[in-house]
Amino acid sequence: TSATSVTLPYQCTTYSSINEMSRLSNYSSCCYCDSSYNGWYRFIGASGSQLITFPVNTGFCGTNAPGWWNGTHPSTVGATANGNFCANYAGYICNPSYSIASVLATNCSGFYVYYLVPLACPGIYPRYCTM
């Protein structure tokens, strides 16, 4: 038998790290907004390891508009999947006024990295939430 190696895409080695406990889906506090992220990021340490893929209630993960990734994490090492950012706000689990961002996720063999875009903060505080 022979081993097959996979060449990981550049984003698996060229990313910024986010380590904030307040991002966790069960963390109750308010109010931070993700208006400055733009590029590839990995969630580490206190922030958990990946974006949540389900809505959580307002007031959790450090915001009044908790965000979740409406997508499926790629199971193949080196693969990238596309999904949408959804913000739970004003009775909508994917509020159309604040849920327009496309988010990419790449499987980096043991962890995921995400291409995050700046979120608009017009009086509410959409935020990428983790687990």
TrEMBL record:
It comes from the Eukaryota. Residues 43-121 form the UMOD/GP2/OIT3-like D8C domain. Keywords: Disulfide bond, Signal. The keyword Disulfide bond applies. InterPro entries: D8C_UMOD/GP2/OIT3-like (IPR057774). This is UMOD/GP2/OIT3-like D8C domain-containing protein. It comes from Rotaria socialis.
